TrEMBL record:
PANTHER family: MALTOSE-BINDING PERIPLASMIC PROTEIN (PTHR30061), MALTOSE_MALTODEXTRIN-BINDING PERIPLASMIC PROTEIN (PTHR30061:SF50). The lineage of its organism: Bacteria, Bacillati, Actinomycetota, Actinomycetes, Jiangellales. Belongs to the bacterial solute-binding protein 1 family. InterPro entries: SBP (IPR006059). Pfam families: SBP_bac_1. This is ABC transporter substrate-binding protein. Keywords: Signal, Transport. The keyword Transit peptide does not apply. It comes from the Bacteria. One of its GO terms (biological process) is maltose transport. GO terms for cellular component: ATP-binding cassette (ABC) transporter complex, substrate-binding subunit-containing. One of its GO terms (molecular function) is maltose binding. Residues 1-20 form the signal peptide.
Length: 417
């Protein structure tokens, strides 16, 4: 059995548009010369002056014969995927290096959009943390090179809370109690109906001991009972005031603003928020801790981040491959991610070197237990179905048991008998 491929279908018009508007193009040079590489990546860190641009500049200093430039994609991951897909479905050579979200690996590999990196696996695997490396593989083959990672933190008000809670139940009890005493709200996370909702739900489900698939993703391992436990916890937190008003419309930035303005006691968010809070003199006193679990043992976070892939349609595959290996294994570049952009690197040794930094120290602990969402070709469809089934149940608008069973039924359709 194997997970079925999810081939992206595009209209002829879209393909024609992609061909007509190839982003990279030829930067000139004589025939036979290597043109400037194009790195298609988005997000705030890819903006002019961002850390990805600094990494590109470092590469250019060290490799003047094969320079690279960033082709800036939109900030939203779904829009980045759409723009890359248009180019790749048209077999365009405008992108050499692809910034690939950790959940796109299977889809891109199955669609034959990526050049395999198995021949450089030995250079990458030993330098990379296990979780990020797992997100870079599909079908036991390395398709992308780990670049930057991410994991969820618990942010808490040190002026209101002595010690961070280690269980979800303790968190809600304290959130409600402190919020009532202080006249503020309890806990904020990413509860809007988008990928972030699925990430937050999975962190509850995984912390209860659940899995979606078996290790090689050939069988569904979804535990309905644990799914009900996770969903009931969220529904109760919505109903009893543990979650702040607006939890079910909050994405990362809405959650950050609520915490930064002193309106909540606890927040689940990514590491990038830490530096923004520290820079704000009016932000409340805070600290960071691992996310709780239901038992209080260990921690579980969804693994985030981006890897770098080599487009199968690049005219400069060898040079592009050298860049993605360098970006994954060059200590100066990986350290730059952490120190210049507060972006979690994937290179294990960097965390030892930055152990005095509170964010990097916590990431060094958390990333070892973080779990990647399955890099399955059908992940986008799975996520949409999980949102459709679970979001109403969390908000008291659908039966929890039947909603969770619907998730399992959909997962069953993603494996072949």
């Amino acid at each position: 059995m194997r997970i079925r491929s999810a081939w992206l279908s595009l209209t002829a018009v879209a393909v024609l548009v992609a061909v007509a508007c190839t982003p990279g193009g030829d930067d000139g040079g004589d025939e036979g010369e290597t043109r400037q590489l194009v790195w298609a990546i988005g997000g705030a860190e890819a903006q002019p002056g961002g850390v990805h641009e600094q990494v590109a500049e470092l590469w250019n200093e060290q490799n003047p014969d094969t320079p690279i430039r960033i082709e800036l994609l939109p900030e939203e991951a779904d829009q980045q995927r759409e723009q890359q897909a248009l180019e790749l479905q048209a077999q365009g050579s405008g992108f050499d290096v692809l910034g690939v979200d950790v959940i796109w690996t299977g889809e891109y590999a199955e669609n034959e959009w990526l050049e395999s990196l198995e021949d450089v696996r030995g250079e990458i695997e030993g330098a990379t943390l296990p979780g990020p490396f797992e997100s870079a593989t599909w079908g036991d083959e390395l398709w992308v090179a780990p670049y930057n990672s991410n994991a969820g933190f618990l942010y808490y008000r040190t002026d209101l809370v002595d010690e961070p809670p280690t269980t979800w139940d303790e968190l809600c009890e304290e959130a409600i109690s402190v919020a009532e005493d202080e006249g503020i709200n309890g806990f904020i996370g990413q509860g809007a109906r988008y990928e972030g909702f699925v990430v937050n739900w999975l962190e509850y489900y995984w912390s209860a001991g659940g899995e979606l698939y078996n290790e090689d993703q050939t069988q569904v391992a979804f535990d309905t009972e644990l799914g009900v436990q996770a969903t009931e916890f969220m529904a109760d937190a919505m109903a009893d005031g543990c979650y702040a008003p607006g939890f079910n419309t909050a994405q990362e930035e809405e959650a950050r603003n609520e915490f930064q303005q002193g309106n909540v006691v606890f927040m689940r968010n990514w590491p990038y928020v830490h530096s923004l809070l520290e820079e704000d003199e009016e932000a409340p006193e805070f600290d960071i801790a691992p996310l709780p679990t239901f038992t209080g043992d260990g921690t579980i976070s969804a693994l985030g981040g981006f890897n770098n892939g080599v487009s199968a349609f690049s005219d400069n595959i060898d040079a592009a491959k050298e860049f993605v290996v360098w970006a994954a294994t060059n200590e100066e570049a990986q350290t730059m991610l952490a120190t210049e952009g507060s972006v979690p690197p994937t290179m294990a040794s960097v965390y030892d070197d930055l152990a005095d930094d509170p964010v990097m120290a916590l990431l060094g602990d958390v990333l070892g237990e973080a779990k990647p969402r399955p890099p399955a070709p059908e992940w986008n469809e799975i996520s949409v179905e999980m949102q459709r089934a679970l979001f109403p149940a969390v908000n008291g608008e659908a039966d929890i048991q039947s909603s969770v069973e619907a998730v399992r039924s959909h997962l069953e359709t993603t494996v072949e008998q």
